[in-house]
Design a protein that fits this description.
Layout (H helix, E strand, L loop, with lengths): L2 H7 L9 H24 L1 H12 E2 L9 E7 L5 E7 L2 E2 L1 E11 L14 E5 L2 H20 L5 E3 L11 E5 L2 E4 L2 E4 L2 E5 L4 E3 L5 H7 L5 E12 L3 E13 L2 H11 L1
Parallel strand pairs: 1-5, 7-14, 8-14, 11-14
Antiparallel strand pairs: 2-3, 3-4, 5-6, 5-13, 6-8, 9-10, 11-12, 13-14
Helix pairs in contact: 1-2, 2-3
GO molecular function: exonuclease activity
Keywords: Exonuclease, Hydrolase, Nuclease
Length: 251
C-alpha cells in the first residue's frame, strides 16, 4: 500500500511533493502504523470489535469500479487471491437474506464441521459478487492454474440465485467449535448463541428464515476446483414475526 494512501486513511493530508515535507509525513505514517500494530497486539478484542463496526459495507455502499483482486502471500503460506475495495479488504453486510437450505450434520467438511448455509442472493449482492468473480477469475487464469473455477453465485433454471455462507471452525482440544458470532432475535431482545453443538445450529437455521449476515470474501484453491467463498463473521437470525413481515413486503 502506498504511503499517500495510508496518509489519507490516517487523516494526515496529502503529500506536498517537497522532499522535507514528504519525509516528515512518511515518518508520521510509520508512527501511526506502529501504533495500530501495537494496539492490535495488546488489545485484540477491542481492536477487532472496533474494526468490525467500520469495515463491513452494505451492497449499496460498494462501487464496482473500486473493486480489485490481487495476489498476496499470507504468513508462512502460498499466494492467495484477496478482494479489495478502495485498496482495503472487502467485507460485506447484507440484511434480510433468506435461508434456502439450513445446516445439516449429514454433510461435513474435512474437519467434521457442517459446510454452509445456502441463502437467496438479492440482485444488489448478486451484481457485486459477479464483479468480484470476474476480476478474481481473470487473475486466477493469468496465474497459469488449470483447476476449475467455481462461481460464487449458483444459478439453476427456474430458481432464485443462491450463495453459500461458510461457518469457519477451530479445534479446541477434542472438540470442533464454530467461530461465527450468532445471534437469535426474540420477541423483545436479541441473544447471542453460546454453544458448540452442531445439532443446535441445525435446528435454528431453517428454510424461510431471514438473517442479517456479516461476511468476508476468502479465496480457496483445492486440487480440482478454485474460487471465492463467503465466510460468515456474524449472523443475526430474525424472529418468526419479523420473517413473516419481510415475506409480506417482498410480495
Amino acid at each position: 500500500m502506498k504511503m499517500a494512501t495510508l496518509a489519507t486513511y490516517f487523516g494526515l493530508g496529502q503529500q506536498t511533493h517537497r522532499s522535507l515535507g514528504d519525509v516528515r509525513m512518511n515518518l508520521e505514517v510509520l508512527k501511526y502504523c506502529a501504533t495500530v500494530l501495537f494496539l492490535e497486539s495488546s488489545l485484540p478484542d477491542i481492536f477487532t470489535d472496533t474494526n468490525g463496526c467500520i469495515e463491513f459495507l452494505e451492497p449499496e455502499e460498494v462501487s464496482l469500479s473500486f473493486i480489485s483482486a490481487t495476489l498476496v502471500r499470507f504468513y508462512r503460506g502460498p499466494q492467495r487471491i484477496q478482494i479489495l475495495h478502495k485498496s482495503f479488504p472487502l467485507q460485506l453486510v447484507c440484511g434480510n437474506l433468506k435461508v434456502r437450505f439450513g445446516i445439516s450434520t449429514k454433510y461435513v467438511d474435512h474437519a467434521g464441521s457442517p459446510l454452509s448455509i445456502v441463502m437467496d442472493a438479492p440482485p444488489s449482492l448478486e451484481m457485486i459478487l459477479d464483479e468480484i468473480d470476474g476480476r478474481a477469475k481473470k487473475l486466477f487464469l493469468e496465474s497459469g492454474s488449470f483447476s476449475e473455477w467455481r462461481p460464487v453465485v449458483t444459478r439453476n433454471p427456474g430458481f432464485f440465485p443462491t450463495v453459500r455462507l461458510k461457518l469457519p471452525t477451530v479445534a479446541d482440544g477434542d472438540m470442533i467449535k464454530w467461530v461465527t458470532e450468532i445471534h437469535k432475535e426474540e420477541a423483545s431482545a436479541t441473544h447471542m448463541l453460546v454453544c458448540s453443538r452442531f445439532d443446535v445450529l441445525e435446528s435454528i437455521f431453517t428454510p424461510g428464515d431471514h438473517v442479517d449476515a456479516y461476511f468476508s470474501l476468502d479465496s480457496y484453491d483445492f486440487p480440482q476446483n478454485v474460487g471465492i467463498r463467503l465466510v460468515a463473521k456474524k449472523l443475526i437470525i430474525h424472529s418468526s414475526a419479523a420473517n413473516a413481515l419481510f415475506d409480506n413486503n417482498m410480495q
